[in-house]
Amino acid sequence: MSRLVYILNGPNLNLLGKRQPHIYGHETLADVERDCRALATELGLELRFHQSNREYEIIDWIHEARDIACGLAINPAAFTHTSVAVLDALNTFDHPVIEVHISNVHKREEFRHRSFVSLRADGVIAGCGTLGYQLALRRIAQLAQPTA
């Protein structure tokens, strides 16, 4: 089985480290990618790391992952609360999906408490800062282990 994991990031995460650092911290998305790549190597995983402000690109990457990836971590950002299309795409992916949020969305505005992505996710990590990405990778590595 493939050891490839996709990490997908939604809108405005390209501004991580600059946008609302009191909520999202000072690390950049490049920092997150660097740390994820280091951990992926340690775990024996390959990584594809993407970010887009365009819903259709995220959907295309999910479709691409269907036949080649053993797992997918996604921080859908604002698409979490709005995108049935992302949920529909995730429902076509037959391997582990972990939803990641840097902030604790449940301590924020009420509209952030509803996640379409959670309806498909095998796990949700929220409020752990950018460490949540590494936790997601560790969980995917566990779930993607071949069964004996």
Taken in chain order, the helices and strands follow as EHHEHEHEEH
Largest sheet: 5 strands, parallel
CATH homologous group name: Dehydroquinase, class II
User: What's the multimeric state?
Assistant: single chain
Can you count the beta strands?
A: 5
Average pLDDT reading = 92
**Strand arrangement in the largest pleated sheet:** 2-1-3-4-5
Query: Beta-strand percentage?
Result: 15-25%
Global Rg: 14 Å
Backbone shape: globular
CATH fold type: Rossmann fold
Percent of residues in helices comes to 25-40%
Total number of domains = 1
Ends apart, CA distance between termini: 13 Å
Structural class: alpha/beta
Number of helices: 5
Structure in words:
The chain has 148 residues and is an alpha/beta fold. It has a single domain, classed as Dehydroquinase, class II (Rossmann fold, 3-Layer(aba) Sandwich), CATH 3.40.50. 34% of the residues lie in helices and 18% in strands. A 5-stranded parallel beta sheet has the order 2-1-3-4-5, sandwiched between helices. α4 links the parallel β3 and β4. α2 packs parallel to α5 and α3 runs parallel beside α4. The relative contact order is 0.21. The model has no long low-confidence stretch (mean pLDDT 92).
Name the features.
single chain, 148 residues, Rossmann fold, five-stranded parallel β-sheet, 5 helices
Report a brief summary of the structure.
This protein has 148 residues and is of the alpha/beta class. It has five helices and five strands, in the order βααβαβαββα. The protein starts with a strand and ends in a 5-residue tail after the last helix.
